[in-house]
Amino acid sequence: MVCGGFTCSKHALSALNILYVMVSLLVIGVAAWGKWFGLVSSFQVVGGMIGVGSFLFVVALVGLIGAVKHHQVLLFFYMIVLFLVFVVQISVSCACLAINEDQQGQLLEVGWNNSESMQRDVEKTLDCCGFSSVDYNRTCDAACSRDLLCSPCKTKIEEHAEEVLRFVGGVGLFFSFTEILGVWLTHRYRNERDPRANPSAFL
């Protein structure tokens, strides 16, 4: 059978969903690893990563079961959810790539003020204190605070933020194209007749 038929579509869709399962387990594993080794103490960050990983795992599992069994209902819901994820992801990815320095600074400050646990993580990791100014009267987990030689975290965060945004935007764009490929494959596969099925089942 030439590639592009029922069997090829089935294997391609199954392989794509196996990739999504692996990515979801990687996201969950990284979050758990970061929490276990104390690299991330923010429950919101860890919970958010585990939530995203779990959602992707469930979606991929639905797609994989639908592909293996050629289940019309599962494939339909999988296709709709995957398309919605594609819309959200490509919007976020484009926003990450298009953000300017002023907007980036405002977002960093909002994120800094919203989580004290994240502040401690950043101060410990980047060896800095405070966001835009150093205040030695408050508790700081950075090693430099013992010698009173700390610099504000804003400058150090901004050095990495642009690279991170570009990386996240690029990876997001790449995966958004795999998602639209998944939507196309699912639509094609749903409308193909299983050559091993009983012809009377389609009447």
Automatic annotation (TrEMBL):
Transmembrane segments: 12-33, 45-68, 75-100, 164-186
Subcellular location: Membrane
Domain of life according to the entry: Eukaryota
InterPro entries: Tetraspanin/Peripherin, Tetraspanin_animals
SS bonds (residue pairs): C129-C144
The UniProt record lists the keyword Membrane: yes
Membrane topology: Multi-pass membrane protein
The keyword Glycoprotein belongs to this UniProt entry's keyword annotation: no
Keywords of the record: Disulfide bond, Membrane, Transmembrane, Transmembrane helix
GO CC aspect terms: membrane
Family, as annotated: Belongs to the tetraspanin (TM4SF) family.
Protein's UniProt name: Tetraspanin 13b
